[in-house]
């Protein structure tokens, strides 16, 4: 009727390396270990240096550049959107 193995006989199993699921379980942690080693090697080989010795002065210069005249309309529009209508001063137009 049924050619399958009887219930009282265990199925024959092969060596553990013949099962693909075992390799899937082993591959995950193995890849993580290899990538971690590569990351440590890269971090030690090329240490990150300070971008600039005078970073504070350069930051101040960037802020001065942002306050330049060419950005005044954008800053006025931003301030106008954040300020109630009654507090907005009337813009002065230069005589041309």
Automatic annotation (TrEMBL):
The chain crosses the membrane at residues 20-44. It comes from the Bacteria. InterPro entries: FixH. Keywords: Membrane, Transmembrane, Transmembrane helix. The keyword Transmembrane helix applies. Residues 71-96 are annotated as: Disordered. The keyword Transmembrane applies. This is Nitrogen fixation protein FixH. It comes from Variovorax paradoxus.
């Amino acid at each position: 009727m049924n050619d399958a193995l009887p219930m009282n006989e265990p199925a024959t199993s092969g060596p553990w390396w013949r099962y693909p699921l075992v390799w899937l379980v082993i591959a995950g942690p193995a890849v993580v270990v290899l990538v971690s080693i590569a990351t440590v090697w890269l971090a030690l080989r090329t240490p990150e240096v300070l971008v600039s010795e005078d970073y504070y002065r350069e930051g101040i210069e960037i802020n001065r550049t942002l306050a330049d005249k060419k950005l005044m309309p954008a800053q006025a529009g931003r301030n106008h959107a954040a300020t109630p209508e009654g507090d907005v001063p009337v813009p002065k137009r230069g005589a041309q």
